[in-house]
Fold this sequence. Notes:
Radius of gyration: 20 Å
Strand content: under 5%
Oligomer: single chain
Amino acid sequence: MLYWLTLLSDGGDFFNLFRYITFRAGGAFLTALIFGFLFGRPLIAVLRKRQGKGQPIRTDGPEGHFVKAGTPTMGGLLIVGALLTSTLLWARLDNPFVWMVLFVTMSFAAIGFADDYAKVRKQTSAGVSGKLRLLLGFLIAGSAAYWAAQFHPAELQNQLAMPVFKDVLVNLGYLFVPFSIIVIVGSANAVNLTDGLDGLAIMPVMIAAGALGVIAYAVGRVDFTEYLDVHYVPGTGEILVFTAGIFGGGLGFLWYNAPPAAVFMGDTGSLALGGALGAIAVATKHELVLAIIGGLFVVEALSVIVQVLYFKRTGRRVFLMAPIHHHYEKKGWAEPQIVIRFWIISLILAMIGLATLKVR
C-alpha cells in the first residue's frame, strides 16, 4: 500500500525510498515486530479467558508436558495478524506472487484455526478430521500452484529447476500441480509436526523464511540471476517483504513462546507458516532447495512416517517416540537443549541451501 507513495516522488526525495524492496522489507519487519509486542499480551489474555483449560495435553506424550496444562493455544493468530498487516502495508499489491503466498497462508491458517477451536471446545487432542484437513489443503495448494504457473515465464512454466545444475530443467507437464501440492501440503504438515516444544518450530521457520526471502529477491532481479546463473522469475523479489513480515512477527511471537511458553502457536500458526514456505518455494522455482533449507522439518516428518510404517510391519518402534524431538526428550535431553540444538541445525541447513545459489 505504501508503495504508491512513490507517485508523489520526483525521483530524489524521501518518497523515492518506497520504490526499493529492501527498504519496504525493513518496514515490514519493524511493523510485524511492533504488532507482536503491542498485541501479544492482550491476545494471550483473551485466549486464556476464552479457552479456560487451554490446549489439551496428549496423555501419551512425554511426562514433562503435563506441567504445560492450561497454556492457551491459537497464538498463531498473533503471527498471522502481524504478517498480514505488514504485507498489506508494505508490499506491492499489484504483484500476483504476493497474493498467492497470502492466499495459501491465510487459507491454511483458517484450517488450523478450525482444528484448534475443535480441540479446545472438545478438550481433546483430536480436532478436525485428518482427511478433511488434507482435502482442503490439496484444494488450496492446487489452486496456488496453478496460479503461480500462470505468472512464471513461459520457459519455466511447469518446469522443475534442479539446484546446482544451472541449465537442467525437468518438464513436469501436468504433474507440476500435483508435485506443487505435495510441496505445499507437505511443508505445512511438516512444520505442524515440528511444533511440539516451546520455541522449537518458530525459529527454524524464521530462518527458513529468511533464506527463502534472499532467494526470492535474487531470482526476482535479472542482474542477480545473470551473475548467479539462476533462473529469472520476474516479480518474486516482492516476496522478500512477505518473509520480512514472517521474521518480525515470529520474533514478536517468540517473546511469549520462549520456555516456559505463555501461549502455543497451535495449528493456526504452524499450518499457515509451513504452507507459506511451500508456496514461496513453488513461486521461486526452488522446491528442491526447500527440502535442504527446511531439512529439519523433513526429518521431523520422516521420523513419524518411519515410526508408523515400521510399527505396523514389525510391532516395534525405531524411535522411543515420534516426532524425533520427543525421542530426544525420552533420552533425557532437556527441552531447551533440544530446541537450541535444532535451531543451530536449521541455521546450518539454511546456509547450505543459500550456497546452492552460487554453486553451479
